[in-house]
Every structure is written in structure tokens, then in C-alpha cells.
Amino acid sequence: MASSRLSTACFFALLGLLCDVVACFTAIAASPTSAVGATFTSLFGSTSGSARDLLYQDQQDAMLRRALHEQQLLSRNKKIKELIAPKLIPAKPKSGTGFGGSASNRVNMDPSARMASEMADVVRREGVIRVDNVVSGETADNLRGYVLEQQRIAAIETERDPSTSRTYYGVENRRKCRCDLQLSLLRGGFASHLGGDREDAPDAEARRSTFALGDALQEMLGSDGTLRRLYENLVTPDGELYELAAVITDKGSHRQMVHPDLPYQEKAPLYVIFLALQDVTEGMGPTSFLLRTHTGEANAIFASGDMERKDEQLSRAECRVGTLKKGDAVLFDARTLHCGNANDERTRVLFNFSFRNPQVGGSLGYKGSIRPGYEGAMSLRGMADALAAYGSGDTNPFAKYI
């Protein structure tokens, strides 16, 4: 048993070393102007050639092997359960109650504020919460169709000019059957940036008649939005919009390695939403979340480099899988350990956005998927104001953020 454990530890230590070496050579290959990069290029070909692709593929294969090992650890001697929405019954207001403490404050709130406070407590305790019926089925359908149309336009434009890739795609661009598509807040989306005179651009009148993204945001973050009070509780109205994208995985997408989204910080820096734009079945690669792993202790073990301790942590973890119905969402603390599962069925589209905690300054060590022009440009309050304008008849309320 000890020999087997040692062999496993050695294997993953070597695996980590291999990933470091691959990353090093990939970086060298990406810098042909340096002396070392020029030598690499002369020996192995250009940066777009087969050598760099092989190095990248080796790295991906190593990560997949680790991800599959983690899957075994998470399910060892136990059945992984579905993440379900908690049944919360907020306390009713009490007459004559003072405002000396948080509990007293809570019972004097209106019902929606009390519910949001209870939900925020779940997030702070568990690291994740499921929220059902965040948007209507019709809104989810419309947004899914819009996202897939935006993906088609992005593919055409990046094929035409690869240098525009950063405008359209985020952190999950090159991986097989998976991408983060950075969405535009303009009515009409990417086509509005490109102009309506392109042969492949949708009809201008059709673009003006619908605003699927605006409608979805209105249902979630408008004055009566299903997530508005919850986010105000977690990040205050000053929270910064940090991500705005769609996570798209196709059949054949591999399982991810378990990870937090960013390096650990004592205060929760970021709260993330995944909204299901169709039912997400077990075979479509739902996200797995490890409850209560947003703590300093859990993150320290995970980042320690001690593979034996890390494997034990995963084997003991309380894992929940985010199989969702269309219109349901998961909100999680970005420090929480999680991973996407393999998609063996059909295209899964999740709408993804996050807001940053204004009490956490400096770099988060993680660049979110958001179009360059929106970085640091909008707060939750600014989002709410734009949605109020949209509700009052402004057909393009986010145009000032271009």
C-alpha cells in the first residue's frame, strides 16, 4: 500500500514537472524574437508549426489524465449528489424589534431582502448555491439562440483576422470543443460593432427588434431581478462587473482538472454565475462543486504541492454536481474548488457573469472573460441604472460603455 501511494505521488510529481517543462517550452516557442526562441524555431519550426502544437497537446493529455484521476477520487466509496436549491424560510418581521444586531436587522427587512440575506449566508457558508427559475424558459431559449449566433459571427471574424481573437474569446479559447465567448452589450451584439453592410451580418431590422441579452439581464439584475438583492448583499451596489461571457462546450469536451478560479484571498474577491440556457444533464458536462472549499485551509492544502494530501482532500470532499433545468443558475464564490465534467451528449451553453467585491483591491490573479472595453467600466449600480433605462424605453442602454 505504501509503495502504491509512493508511486502515485511520484507519478503526479513528475506530471507537474512535465507540465512546467511544456509550459516553459511553449513560452519559448511563442517568443521567436529572443535568442532562445530563435534557436527553438530553427530546430523545431515556426511557432504555428507542429512542434508547438505537439507540446500543447502533451500538456492537455497530462491534464486530462490528472482530471480523470480526480474524478475517481471524488467518487471513491460514495455517490456524488446533485446540487439542489436550499429550502429557505426567512424569519418574519417582529414588531418592536430594534436594530442592534444582524439578526434584528434581518427580520425588519422586506421579504425579498430577507430571502437574499439568507441566500447570501448559504454562499458564505457553503461556497455555492443553486437558484432555480432565475429566468423564464422563453428568455433562456432566446438567449441561447442569440449566443450561438454570436459564436458563428466570432468564428467568421477570427478566421478572417486571427488577431481579433482576444476581442471575442476569453480564457477558454483553444481547448477542444470548449470556449468562453465574450459577449457584447450592444443591441445586435457583434454585428452592431461590425456594421450592417457585411454580407454575413444579420439583417439590421432583425437586430433592432430583439435584445435577448438585455431581456435576460433585466430578469436577473433589474429592479425586481431574481439575483439583484443577492448580489447587492454579497458585493454591494459598487461591485464591479468582472466577467460577461457564455461558456460553450460541445460533445467531446474533456473533463477539467479541479481548480479555484483565482489565488486565495482572505476576503471573497469574486462571485460567479452560471445560468443554464437549456437543461444540463449529467452527460452534458455539468460543473462539479466541492462544498466548503472556499476556505483558507482548503485552498492551502490544494495549492501545497503535496499530492498525497491533495488526493486525500479530494477523496474526502463533499462534491455536488450542477445538473440544472433551463433557466436555473448556480452562484459560487470563485475561491471554491470546482471543475467542468466531460460532455458526451450535445452542446451545452451557460451564460456566465461575475461581480467583484469592491473591498478587495489590486490584481485578483485571474483575468475574467469580458470584452476589453468593459473591463473596470461598470458596477452593479451602473448595470441597474442601464436596465432601468431599458425598462423605460432606451433600446440601447449600454451603448455608452463601448
UniProtKB/TrEMBL annotation:
SUPFAM superfamilies: Clavaminate synthase-like (SSF51197). It comes from the Eukaryota. InterPro entries: Fungal_Metabolite_Diox, Phytyl_CoA_dOase-like. Transmembrane segments: none annotated. Keywords: Signal. Residues 1-24 form the signal peptide. Pfam families: PhyH. This is Uncharacterized protein. It comes from Stephanodiscus triporus.
